[in-house]
Design goal:
The chain has helices spanning about 5-35, 55-60, 65-95, 100-110, 115-130, 135-160, 165-175, 180-190, 190-205, 210-215, 225, 240-260. It is mainly alpha-helical. The longest helix is centred in the first third of the chain and has 34 residues, at about 65-95.
């Protein structure tokens, strides 16, 4: 039954309230980034600046910020590529192989998701130091892959598990080998799951702070979350520049999410088989 008019109005009101609650911090961040240096502390506080200015963005977009941005792109891009590739291969093995050992390995994958970053950072740090990888891209990429791969396998396993095996069997009967079936049948049909997993990994690695702070020692290797600390000094915080940098850090991830959000709800095999 369709909801009545009062019910639809109440539901719309709750949705607007939830949207306002979620978007208010981001709106305040944008507002502070457009305020002059003294206005964030004005009384009474204003939701929107009386005289908006882009000076904070000009100051924040300095050479160091561009270096941090490049570092984040390299680390996040490599992590997404490695995690999604390994996760897809592992998830395909878990969904197609019917062995007791595979079930035990999947249980270990689930168990690996339960450890917080703070609990594993010390052993990872010692391994990176022993391998001489500290203050390199490799240290961050390996650390990020170690924490995102279990979740990626779990997500992709759910997508691949819903894929009809009949499509692969039909291709095998027609003479296609295992690799051809994987790349020409499985990968195209799993594209929504692959993109959804890639976006998840991108969001996690783009905003990660603890590993990036611990495994980098020089300004040239910092990523964006660590670089934002430049605006937090011993005697004060430059809120306008900090918020301007935060907006510039957030915009790329938000843009990627809105461009690819349709893949989160797209059907995996819509139209592939007729019932």
């Amino acid at each position: 039954m369709r909801p009545s008019v009062p019910e639809r109005a109440a539901l719309a009101g709750l949705q607007l309230l939830l949207a306002a609650f979620v978007l208010l911090p981001f709106f305040w961040m944008v507002s502070v980034s457009l305020k002059p240096a003294t206005e964030p502390f004005a009384i009474p506080a204003r939701l929107w600046p009386e005289a908006p200015t882009l000076d904070n963005y000009v100051t924040a977009f300095r050479p160091e910020f561009r270096t941090y941005f490049v570092n984040s792109v390299i680390v996040s891009g490599a992590t997404v590529a490695i995690t999604v590739t390994l996760g897809l291969l592992a998830a395909y093995s878990f969904t197609r192989a019917r062995l007791v050992l595979i079930t035990a390995l999947m249980s270990l994958v689930v168990l690996a998701q339960m450890f917080p970053h703070a609990a594993i950072i010390i052993p990872i740090y010692r391994m990176m130091r022993g391998a001489g990888l500290l203050n390199t891209y490799a240290a961050l990429i390996i650390a990020y892959v170690s924490v995102t791969l279990p979740v990626a396998i779990w997500l992709l396993r759910g997508f691949l598990g819903k894929m009809p095996v009949a499509l692969e069997e039909a291709a095998t009967i027609d003479g296609a080998g295992r690799l051809r079936v994987f790349f020409e049948i499985v990968v195209p049909l799993a594209r929504p799951g692959i993109i959804a997993t890639a976006v998840y990994v991108l969001i996690v690695t783009w905003q990660e702070f603890l590993f990036a702070l611990s495994f980098t020692a020089t300004r040239e290797m910092r990523t964006l979350p660590v670089g934002l600390n430049d605006f937090v000094g011993q005697y004060g915080i430059r809120y306008g520049e900090l918020m301007a940098s935060s907006v510039m850090v957030s915009v790329p991830v938000i843009a990627v999410f809105f461009l690819l959000q349709r893949y989160f709800v797209a059907g995996l095999t819509a139209g592939a088989v007729k019932g």
